[in-house]
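Lecture notes, unit on protein representations.

Consider one protein chain, 234 amino acids long.
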Amino acid sequence: KRNQSPQVYHTAETPLGMRSSLILPDGTKVWLNAGSKLSYPVTFSEKFRTVSLSGEAYFEVKKHNKWPFMVNSGNMKIIVSGTSFNCNAYPENSVIETVLVEGLVTLKNQSSTVSKELRPGELAIFKKNTQQVTKTKTDLQKYVAWKTGKLMFRDDKMNLVVEKLERWYNVDFEIKDKEIADYIYTATFIDESLDQVLKMLSLSAPIRYTVLERKKQDDQSFTRQVVRLYKKKH
């Protein structure tokens, strides 16, 4: 006889500027990046182990061939038996990126009309508006380094760099000279403070920056740190 009691859900949330890890009821390990949320039932159903992700997470799924693990993120599903993979599904982005480290995963759109299998070392980009998936071979390290506290950029446009820095350090960036946004940047930061990262950025890219004073608000809390980026003048 099936247990008909309604499922109780738990939500793990990681604030901006932080990262965390947890173990799910089935023994699956999950690392959550800054500004991410994972909802999962206190006990998984008999058919599927289903979780919902908003943000970025790295999963090491406990292997169980007859009991698929499923990640719902926006309008895309990832179906797994036992595998290590990274999914970047921040709601404000127009794409969901999934990289497979080991095992096998299947990506499906909401209506299951699109289905793609990923092999280890492949990156799948799911476009939310068209629900189409494209696959390429990639440098996995770039996509999973965050889990060990490294910020890795490899030929990334500066607007993407800035987006990651905002979450990682819980600050706001303002790009004041638009041509900076397309500047291509490569670097790895390990445990550097925001101040150190900004200094390195200004040394290795044609960028200068100013950090605005934080203001005290009516409730005595301070506004978020704001960093402005400008093109270096020759």
